[in-house]
Amino acid sequence: xxxxxxxxxxxxxxxxxxxxxxxxxxxxxxxxxxxxxxxxxxxxxxxxxxxxxxxxxxxxxxxxxxxxxxxxxxxxxxxxxxxxxxxxxxxxxxxxxxxxxxxxxxxxxxxxxxxxxxxxxxxxxxxxxxxxxxxxxxxxxxxxxxxxxxxxxxxxxxxxxxxxxxxxxxxxxxxxxxxxxxxxxxxxxxxxxxxxxxxxxxxxxxxxxxxxxxxxxxxxxxxxxxxxxxxxxxxxxxxxxxxxxxxxxxxxxxxxxxxxxxxxxxxxxxxxxxxxxxxxxxxxxxxxxxxxxxxxxxxxxxxxxxxxxxxxxxxxxxxxxxxxxxxxxxxxxxxxxxxxxxxxxxxxxxxxxxxxxxxxxxxxxxxxxxxxxxxxxxxxxxxxxxxxxxxxxxxxxxxxx
Length: 401
Description:
Elements: H1 3-6, H2 13-19, H3 46-53, H4 68-81, E1 85-89, H5 92-103, E2 109-113, H6 118-127, E3 134-138, H7 143-153, E4 157-161, H8 173-182, E5 186-190, H9 195-198, E6 208-212, E7 226-230, H10 232-247, H11 253-264, H12 266-285, E8 290-294, H13 304-310, E9 317-322, H14 325-335, E10 340-341, E11 351-353, H15 365-370, E12 378-381, H16 387-399
Parallel strand pairs: 2-3, 2-4, 4-5, 5-6, 10-11
Antiparallel strand pairs: 1-7, 6-7, 8-9, 9-12, 11-12
Helix pairs in contact: 2-11, 4-11, 5-10, 7-8, 14-16
């Protein structure tokens, strides 16, 4: 099959995740795209090298900005998210920071949702302020509040996650993107929790999507990577500035190789993650020792109707609090035998962690209180184990809670 035959936009999600952009004949018949473990590239002539540096000729110059495997990964990610172009980098935070350093300057304003991954929150509310960029926090589940803030501040960027980490609040992408566009701002959505298998923000009006590809996109807990998808002009600007000399956050060739592998099973894995997460959310909600459960797939979740409209599934994350508070939660986590106590998410293994003392410790106690991140909140990243075994492990741990 020729490469052009693999690039048809009418192909299904899984077909594009497996085939898009690659022709085995181009690599001596190798079914799996090769690993390009090189730092630099030879020019066929001095003139060719000069033209590549001037941007007059396509090609590979130096491994910091791109390699052939990375180009394939980026083409595939852009196809899956429905974007013009993509950039793969060394981590999710690298994707966010490279974008911010490229697009923002002293005097610019940013509007972010009050609930973000802890280090994203720290970058926007603490890191950027050192360089004259002002960040304002709002509750993005309240479009009226967002509209008023955009009208008053005229931010350059509007940034949020949905579902949000760790509360799993669902935000109306189309509504927020429309408000941002009317106010002259770019909308950036972190789509790590849902992945393009379940949610495609660009099709709902967002301008740019970022990922911690470490998580569900990779899917096996054996790499660290990030990605940015959106208009080609912006993505290539971030490659030329944000990656090339502002951060130098180059993705490793082996991580590219592993991500291409992970994408092949993404749709199947997200179906399994979502089905098991829904079953465990129902189990937890019905247990007398559980005070509350947050999962978009539950009908009583405040964002359930919205999630049904803008998502194709509800994802693999469940958040809950035990009636006994933090002490009971700690006893519960320590009693788990199959479920692993670890941060991160999206792995084949089910992982459990305590956001207030772990991933969201960059928030102050007051900020966590104000933004709904309870001291007793537990976040469960549901893996791919046999569901009955997960249910048994959770039930026996609840007995000790």
